[in-house]
TrEMBL record:
Family matches, as SUPFAM superfamilies: ARM repeat
InterPro entries according to UniProt: ARM-like, ARM-type_fold
Upper classification of the organism: Bacteria, Bacillati, Actinomycetota, Actinomycetes, Micrococcales
Organism: Brachybacterium kimchii
Protein name in the entry: HEAT repeat domain-containing protein
Length: 141
């Protein structure tokens, strides 16, 4: 699929090829140990992946890749991902924390730590993170 397509389409194509559990597992690997998976990063980042893989914006272990891996969980999901998303609410970069809140709003079911993490984000230093946490907490549980 062309890299110019939307993240939703790129992710749907990848899920179609490899299955949802496998795809989510690859995303969790990025979140868990920072594994560099250039093929996955290209799917997640589209046209922006090339510069990041070449070292821009903290490179392939940086915040964009973590943010993209989290964003992918809006389109492909497994309940096994929830603890990693809750953990991402403590990421060092605000973009990843914001995306973690968005994913929890859309996907969290067990709330195993999600509500406490979102409560903590209400006091985050970045206004976009606080806003995402507020929206997430306003969602019906």
């Amino acid at each position: 699929m062309a890299q110019e397509s939307t993240p939703r389409r790129r992710i749907a194509a990848a899920v179609s090829r490899e299955g949802e559990e496998a795809f989510v597992g690859r995303c969790l690997s990025i979140l868990g140990d920072g594994e560099i998976d250039a093929e996955l990063i290209e799917v997640l980042g589209g046209n922006s992946a090339g510069p990041v893989l070449a070292g821009a914006s903290d490179g392939p272990r940086g915040y964009w890749v973590r943010t993209w891996a989290l964003r992918a969980l809006l389109y492909a999901w497994s309940a096994s991902a929830e603890p990693a998303v809750v953990a991402a609410t403590a990421d060092t970069h605000w973009r990843a924390r914001e995306m973690a809140a968005k994913v929890l709003a859309a996907r969290a079911t067990s709330r195993c730590g999600a509500e406490a993490a979102l409560d903590r984000l209400l006091r985050d230093e970045h206004p976009r993170v606080r806003a995402a946490a507020r929206r997430a907490l306003d969602q019906p549980g």
